[in-house]
Amino acid sequence: MLSGLDLTTLALLAVAGVVLDLMLGEARRWHPLAGFGRWAMWLERRLNRGSGRYCRGALAWLLAVAPPTAIALALLLPSAFWLTCCVQAILLYLCLGLRSLREHNLPIADALARGDLAAARQLTARIVSRDTSGSSATALANASAESLLENGNDAVFGTLFWFAVAGAPGAVLFRAANTLDAMWGYRAVRYLRFGCVAARLDDAFNFLPARLTALSYTLLAPGLRAKLRAWRCWRQQAPLWSSPNAGPVMASGAGALGISLGGAAVYDGEVEQRPPLGQGAGATGADIARAWRLVARTTALWITVFLALAALTELTHA
Predict the structure, then answer these.
(1) Are 75 and 91 in contact (CB under 8 A)?
(2) Which residues contact 175 (CB under 8 A, 6 or more apart)?
(3) What kind and span of H or E run contains 205?
(4) 241 near 220, Cβ under 8 Å?
(5) Number of C-alpha atoms within 13 angstroms, CB side, residue 263?
(6) Under 8 Å CB-to-CB from 296, ≥6 apart: which residues?
(7) Cα-flanking dihedrals φ and ψ of residue 91, to 5°?
(8) What are the transmembrane regions (predicted)?
(9) CB atoms within 10 A of CB 49
(10) pLDDT tens digit sequence for 32-90
(11) With the CA atoms of 158, 163, 165 and 168 taken in that order, what torsion angle do they form, in degrees rounded to the nearest 10?
């Protein structure tokens, strides 16, 4: 393994990281990702100007990603085995966002269940970039379900994948690259050239995790009919989506849940007609909770597979 740790140790550390995330959630103050975001904003303000925006964007990406990845590597310099394991687990915990997905999305479901559209709009605006000021209950539930399904990959499964490949430094590198895509990867005029490298590198890092996530959503769909629907939505609808990785993840997830996502959304005052995803009626508040449970079950599946592979490796080398 690139991490220098055996598969069994990595699997147990992955369990530890997920458990820490579920127990503690996001650090309320001094979260490293918040500090990284401020560092990225500072770089963007100073480099996103003048000519050569593609090269400037590439330089900004390198300057943003290199320090946290180097720090993660430095923290794992030869030391006591138990200390290395503790650092690995803590760094993974800081990169994960499973509990955060629940804490940000289930209150939207609760607000919709109460019929409190104003609260639901305010809560949804915190997790999506679209305009929610005039959104209907269905549009809000759709936005939350889309965010859960997509960020299940970005904040959980992609992080676990790169942790399995390269340990904590791999998880840190992935989360930094994914955060830069979220900040700079827009097609707005300001970021069209500057953010191109960040967007393409995130596509590359996410290519395999996104397809494993789509496969997981399909396998965990309730019943054969739902599994076939999720597979069909993935294969037929994902190629129409602008993002090569969000398309498979959200299409398979919507198909697994039996709901319709995509469609019209307002960005920067303009209505964007997005391709349809899934099959069935639009989402409701109850579907937000179902989407969360799908993400949670997928996390359990990944951890189970990780542990099973570790056990199989131990048996074959016994």
Answers:
(1) yes
(2) 33, 95, 155, 159
(3) helix 196-219
(4) no
(5) 17
(6) 98, 102
(7) -65, -40
(8) 6-24, 54-74, 294-312
(9) 10
(10) 888 899 999 999 999 999 889 999 999 999 999 999 999 999 998 877 888 999 999 99
(11) 140
